[in-house]
Specification:
Blueprint (H helix, E strand, L loop, with lengths): L2 E5 L2 E4 L4 E8 L7 E7 L6 E7 L5 E3 L7 E6 L4 E6 L8 E8 L1 H4 L6 H4 L6 E2 L3 E6 L1
């Protein structure tokens, strides 16, 4: 069973940093891509970042590029989202989702068009609050 545990959220002042973690279990990590999404109250879910262990591709959305970076510790089966220079508009619940990238031929390079929630397994979300 695919299980994802997102953590690392919290309250931070604007300009501060947080590191989110998505710990995975129950599947072959090297065959999957881990995607980060966020959803603020009253807003649509937004794709933020992606890391694929299947093909080594990554993705960072325009809205966070230059401030957020994604990395992975495959030995720990954990993907990290380092968030720097946080802005109030970054406040949201952040979710990680796993896609069987190898089986689907999914690449983070095509994140915006290829991601299909039908094939995704989701973590529970972690809340990020940014005070101005």
């Amino acid at each position: 069973e695919v299980q994802l545990q997102a953590s690392g959220g919290g309250l931070v002042q604007a300009g501060g940093s947080l590191r989110l973690s998505c710990a995975a279990s129950g599947f072959t990590f090297d065959d999957y891509a881990i995607n980060w999404f966020r959803q603020a109250p009253g807003k649509e879910r937004e794709g933020v970042s992606c890391f694929s262990s299947a093909d080594g591709t990554t993705y960072i959305s325009d809205s966070v590029r230059g401030r957020f970076t994604i990395s992975s510790d495959n030995a720990k089966k954990t993907v990290y989202l380092q968030m720097n220079s946080l802005k109030p508009e970054d406040a949201a619940v952040y979710y990680c989702a796993a896609i069987p990238a190898f089986r689907l031929g999914y690449s983070c390079a095509g994140f915006r068009h290829q991601f299909n929630p039908r094939f995704a397994s989701w973590g529970q979300g972690t809340l990020v609050t940014v005070s101005s």
